[in-house]
Design a protein that fits this description.
This protein has 7 helices and 10 strands. It has 233 residues and is of the alpha/beta class.
Length: 233
């Protein structure tokens, strides 16, 4: 069953930059997919279309059977409850503890304190940070901060997790550590993982499906693929 489907998607920004050109793509439920390509190839635009940060100029974008491009602004929050996003720069709130950072999105959903606590503790356990829940972000290593970001993304057990350069600010050892947790979550939760990345070592080590974009065009799509060194070839 196709969980994500993009049909003839075009995206041109107001400044005239063409980000995606006639993109067609399907991703099955539970897949782990790397999106690679040079800066400006369309990776971030693709991920933003999935959680409705951007809309296509033409084409259709389906997530879980919903055409998110046609979704009313008033209903976008319902889509985002089912999606977790992990950012390169962590986006943690510095004055909140680890526990409070992970709990923060759930508080907007009107959940009871007991339900929030149960979900937060499970998420922190999954990323190996339960013992650091009372720490503040500045007391953590970069790898630990990214794992807090990952816990926040998975706290509501989303069907889709989007990772935008999650290892971009980490050294190779911490990158492998974070990726191992993401791989584990993919297997445990069955969440679909879509990751935009420049990290060649991670892509080559993990042997997942690799989609390569160049100037907004899909030029390669391989199962168990590797990082393409020269996207012009």
């Amino acid at each position: 069953m196709d969980f994500i489907e993009l049909k003839n998607v075009f995206k041109v920004y107001k400044n005239g930059v063409s980000a995606l050109a006639d993109l067609n793509l399907t991703i099955k439920k539970g897949e782990f997919v790397f999106i690679i390509g040079q800066s400006g190839s369309g990776k971030s635009t693709l991920t933003k279309l999935l959680y409705r940060e951007e809309r296509p100029n033409r084409g259709e974008v389906y997530v879980g059977g919903i055409n998110v491009a046609k979704l009313r602004n008033s209903n976008v929050y319902k889509l985002r409850r089912k999606i977790g996003v992990v950012f390169q720069d962590f986006k943690l709130l510095p004055k909140l503890t680890v526990y409070e950072n992970v709990a923060y999105p759930l508080e907007t959903y009107g959940m009871s304190r007991g339900e929030i606590r149960e979900k937060v503790l499970v998420a922190l356990e999954r990323v190996g940070l339960k013992e650091r829940m009372h720490s503040f972000p500045n007391e953590l290593s970069g790898g630990e901060q990214q794992r807090v970001g990952l816990a926040r993304a998975i706290v509501n057990e989303p069907k889709l997790i989007i990772c935008d350069e999650p290892t971009g600010d980490l050294d190779p050892k911490l990158s492998r550590e974070v990726m191992d947790f993401i791989d584990k979550i993919n297997k445990e939760l069955g969440s679909t993982i879509i990751m935009a990345t420049h990290d060649k070592e991670i892509v080559n080590r993990m042997k997942k499906r690799v989609i390569c974009l160049h100037d907004g065009v899909l030029i390669s799509d391989k199962e168990g693929g590797a990082y393409i060194e020269n996207e012009d070839n």
